[in-house]
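Take a record:
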Amino acid sequence: MDVAAELFAERGFHRVTVDDIGAAAGVSGPALYHHFSGKEELLGEILVAISEQLLAGGKLRVAQATDPADALDRLLQFHIAFSLSRPALITVHFRELVHAPDADRRRVRQLQGEYVEQWVDVLTDLDASLDRTTARAATHAALGLMNSTPYSARLGHGAMRQLLLRMARAAIGSAGDGVDGRQVG
């Protein structure tokens, strides 16, 4: 699935054949049909799997946190690590989700919604004056910033990680009265 994601990100979904994926994975293209009915199903599996991983990872970070500020910092660190290590998946999601089977698209959207709501819960716990709609908008904006790495990562990994962390903290912190007044990380 990683090979297919890289090819989809590099060339676009419609420019990649099953034979291309098989060759890059070291098998024949038709061998992929033992696992997937076609490219669309493979794309859906890729996007559902990464959405499930993000949701599970977010839940784990929140559960490990000592307080809402720690939870926010853990979520930020987690998502930045994801965005820097998996830029192809971000590209594929933005450009190619439309080509996934309907059921997979719905599942991805559901999982993404649950992931965002984790962030919203943390933000509203951190700042009681922050309404959920504003917290949700701030979360989407911060995720957009962090997910810009396929297009913006021009620095080394460590420097980009620090820049994204500072910028995401500032973006999230500007959402409400109390969020930016807390010491995060």
Observations:
- The chain has one domain: 40-173.
